Amino acid sequence: MADSAGRADELAAEAARLKGEVEQNEVQRRRLRSAIEETARTIAATARTIAETENRLADTLDRLAADRPEAAERLRGEARHARDFARYERDCGEQRPPG
């Protein structure tokens, strides 16, 4: 009888330890989720800023192309590339983290 009481105490202690681990893991999971969400917001804001900068660069290259006919084709190509990159950055910034 004493043996089963001792085993029951061991199991109760182990259950309490595991419950504490589960609670700690849940707190850590919430912290990580919050950090992931904040990082995603930062990435999105950075991507928007990059896209805006690339679009301004493309506008500048288009204006230069109008003033420099000898380099117009190359400058317009660079402007297209900048706009494509801006679109890529906007798309990346709109993605949400899994979960």
Instruction: Let me know the number of strands.
Output: 0
Q: What Rg, in angstroms, do the CA atoms define?
A: 29 Å
Pick out the low-confidence regions. Answer: none
What general form does the structure show? rod-shaped
User: What share of residues are in beta strands?
Assistant: under 5%
Helix content: over 70%
Describe the structure.
This protein is 90% helix and 0% strand. With 99 residues, the protein is mostly helical. It has one domain. It starts with a helix and ends in a 5-residue tail after the last helix. Helix 1 runs antiparallel to helix 2. The radius of gyration is 29 Å and the shape is rod-shaped.
Concise summary:
By secondary structure, the protein is mainly α. The chain has 2 helices and no strands.
Please give the structural blueprint.
Elements lengths: L1 H66 L4 H23 L5
Helix pairs in contact: 1-2
